[in-house]
Design brief:
mainly alpha; Ferritin; binds hydroxy diiron-OXO moiety
Length: 168
């Protein structure tokens, strides 16, 4: 059974993952308005992935016979200055989420909650990937600068992202 402290912290992380989903959906809308359909698609897939992360913790709390509490999520930004800004914010956002996951893991260690530690290891690995992907796209967007042809190529590449499988 989950301790109250652990359960509260996991419910908070459900909120953070749903909040991430909202942030990426807002970024997707911004890219769509800039006629960057590939970026918009990629960010929409990212938003769905974050929804999946929230549900992974949601299901876990239920498996441990805990109590799920869905908290209000903040309104995301709806305007961005540029693509560079979008991916700078994406990278910063993922670093913040990594920190949150690490803190959750530290709490699970403190609580001697071994199943939660195992569950969180998936998220620790995932965050390494999330930060790398955000950092790679940010570097590419910076390199492209004002080169429209290169931007179109990257937009086409990002359009090919497929939805994550169930266990992602
Ligand atoms: Fe849930 O990994 Fe990004 O935020």
């Amino acid at each position: 059974m989950l301790s109250t402290k652990m359960e509260n912290a996991l419910n908070e992380q459900i909120k953070n993952e749903f909040s991430s989903s909202f942030v990426y959906l807002a970024m997707s809308a911004y890219c769509d308005e800039q006629n960057l359909a590939g970026f918009a698609h990629w960010l929409r897939m990212q938003s769905q992935e974050e929804y999946g992360h929230a549900m992974k913790i949601f299901n876990y709390i239920q498996d441990r016979e805990g109590h799920v509490v869905l908290k209000a999520i903040p309104q995301p930004e709806s305007q961005y200055g540029s693509l560079v800004e979008v991916f700078k914010e994406t990278l910063e956002h993922e670093k913040t989420i990594s920190q949150m996951i690490n803190e959750l893991y530290a709490l699970a260690v403190e609580e001697k909650d071994y199943p939660t530690q195992v569950m969180l290891q998936w998220f620790i690995n995932e965050q390494v990937e999330e930060e790398k992907t955000a950092s790679d796209i940010l570097a590419q967007v910076k390199m492209i600068g004002d080169n429209t042809s290169a931007l179109i190529v990257l937009d086409q590449q990002l359009a090919s992202r497929s939805p994550e499988s169930e266990d992602k």
